[in-house]
Amino acid sequence: MPAARERWMSNRLVMWLSAVIGGGAIHLLLWQFSEPPNIFNDFYKANLAAAETIWEYGLNATWPLTEQGGFSNLPALAWICVLLVPLGEEAAAWTFLGFGLAATLAAWALLTRLAKLEEPLAAGLLFLFLVNGPIVNSLREGQSSHFILLLLVVALLQWRAKRGYAAGIALGLSATFKLPLLLLGVYFLLRQRWRIVAGGATMIGVVVLASLALYGVNGLVGWYKDWIEPFLGGSVAAFNVQSINGFLIRLTIEVGDLRDWELRDPPTVLRIARLCASAALFAASYWLIWRANKTAPSAQGDAGTPSQRDFMEFVLVLTLALLLGPATALASEVDLAAAKKEGQVVWYTSTPIGTAQKIANLFQAETGIKVELFRSGGSAVLRRFMQEMDARRVIAAISSFRSGPRTSTRSATR
User: Fold this and answer.
1) What span, in angstroms and rounded, lies between the C-alpha atoms of 385 and 170?
2) Is 43's pLDDT higher than 50?
């Protein structure tokens, strides 16, 4: 076996073909089983939907930019995808995927350079990138996680090159997309890496100020109430929520609820367990860093090149941020109780009328709830839906948008 392994590693062509073809085949296979079933689901209902609103209303656009459960980042970040809107929905999605693939490959190449990997290990890392579940899901659904990965690798490269301010800018930008990454800022603050802290603070300040300038205080407050406040205490039990909150709340649900992205209010015992688990992880991490520094003190402040241990501490804090950060939910179900009480549900959709009517008939037969259809184009559906919600005329409503492979469904109750 060792001889066969050496022969395989010495044959560069076979090694790279195995990594690319084998990893690529598994990657594409995973696309067939990933949830939700419709590709680019998150891109359509979040990034593109927000960009379409900005394209239509420009500087007059107000928060929320999408229907409930759509765009969740700081409001100013919605402008990133605006230039994709003229391409049309499907072309915009595939273009976004192209950028995402380029970002993922760039992250792999830079990480290979950062770690100074030899070819066999570089090929192995490429294979792992291709078969990595979160990367597959992020690319398939049109999320931002793979772009954040690139920003984190760039930050490490800049840090190693003693360009702390540039590293901080990359980390600050990543934190505006994934707020739990703010924990990295606390780490660098405690380590007195002032240039990194300054760079991060600058980038975060720019995004926050841009959001204030574009959407005002009410826009920022609305974003906070929609996407931060509810998740400070609540938990999402869906299978793909990779946090302490998600793990604990899944102990209380049935198997059938693993595809439920509704925000749940955990019982007191789970709140205590979450607090204890978080405190234990923080304490253990702090102890490991303190003990290592006591044994062999590392350079504080901006002086000196980061060591291998610095990078290991970075990964440890990054893992803590991912485990302890509250989850955000991008899907919500119809409130059947409210709909049954009202006696009917209004479905705002761009689905072809024949298909929509069949779905409505099936829903009515299964639930006994009458379905009232409103069909139009995607932006018109959103506009009508929001008008009805603002006027408080909707008791139970569903909005869905579909074009080609695109399907985005939201519900609301009054």
Assistant:
1) 38
2) yes
